[in-house]
Amino acid sequence: MENKMEEKFPLIGDKLPEMEVQTTHGKRKLPDDYLGKWLVLFSHPADFTPVCTTEFVAFAKRHEQFKKLNCELLGLSIDQVFSHIKWVEWIEEKLGVEIKFPIIADDTGKVAKKLGMIHPGAGTSTVRAVFLIDPNSVIRLILFYPASVGRNMDEILRVVKAFQISDEYKVAIPANWPNNELMKDEVIIPPPTDVETAKKRLKSKEFECYDWWLCHKKI
Ligand code: BEZ
Fold first, then answer.
1. Ligand 1: does its nearest atom lie under 6 Å from the Cβ of 126?
2. pLDDT of residue 123
3. Which domains are assigned to the chain?
4. Pick from 48, 126, 150, 167: most CB atoms within 10 A?
5. How many CA atoms, within 13 angstroms, populate the side-chain half-sphere of residue 117?
6. Whose alpha carbon is nearest atom 2 of ligand 1?
7. Whose CA is nearest to atom 7 of ligand 1?
8. DSSP string of 66-95, one letter each residue
9. How far is the CA of 56 from the centre of ligand 1 (A)?
10. CB 166 less than 6 A from any atom of ligand 1
11. Residue 127 beta carbon below 6 angstroms from any ligand 1 atom
12. Residue of 42, 47, 51 with the most ligand 1 atoms within 8 Å of its CB, for mutation
């Protein structure tokens, strides 16, 4: 039997691999050109397709909000740069929306293959992948959506904000934050890992607790 080497894709906690990429805004070095910034690197199946067009409009409408979070957007598909340029022109002419962020022209599929963005069961184009990369070039979140369902850009904005708060205050972020069913916009204190702290926690005036392992506070 053939002994195929298993391909290893980068995962959460890994550094984004170093690559030089061609974009609609010229060449970029990944991840170095984005050091010190958050980066949403996202792939779409193809230019001039309906769901992808709605996604680009949705990202463009929120571009300023991403920038306010020190977060850049970078698209990618297995298309030539000429196709990206024509598509971006079409979106501006027909829909009145300017796409101001760069798009990687990965016409050889090299970047997509390295990041595992091509699902073997879904043809030769990229799935709707999202890699959220932090200012130290570490991959913090990976989302994969199929071609048939567009992503929710408000959720992507939410997770950027959530990671920034989690990192700054060393807290965890509850479901549906900032509209959580139990604690609204408050955040979770990491549970204690020793008996002494567990006992003290319920007496603490700093937090509100459902129990010693489920405490939350305002930030
Ligand atoms: C779309 O964006 O509409 C799409 C792209 C690839 C396959 C199916 C749908």
1. no
2. 85
3. 19-151 (3.40.30.10), 170-219 (3.30.1020.10)
4. 126
5. 26
6. 51
7. 147
8. HHHTTEEEEEEESS-HHHHHHHHHHHHHHH
9. 13
10. no
11. no
12. 51
Q: Which of 37, 31, 160, 36 has the alpha carbon at shortest distance from 104? A: 31
**Vertex 99, ends 96 and 105: CA angle to 5°?**
135
* Tokens linked to 7: 């391909």
Mention every residue, 6+ apart, whose C-beta is less than 8 A from residue 163. 38, 132, 134, 140, 141
Length of the chain: 219
* Predicted local confidence at residue 131, as pLDDT: 98
Reported as a single tens digit per residue, the pLDDT across 125-183 is 999 999 999 999 999 999 999 999 999 999 999 999 999 999 999 999 999 999 999 99
- Name the token pair of 48: 């001039």
Q: Is 52 a catalytic residue?
A: yes
User: Tens digits of per-residue pLDDT, 51-69?
Assistant: 999 999 999 999 999 999 9
Assess whether the C-beta atom of 51 lies below 6 angstroms from ligand 1: yes
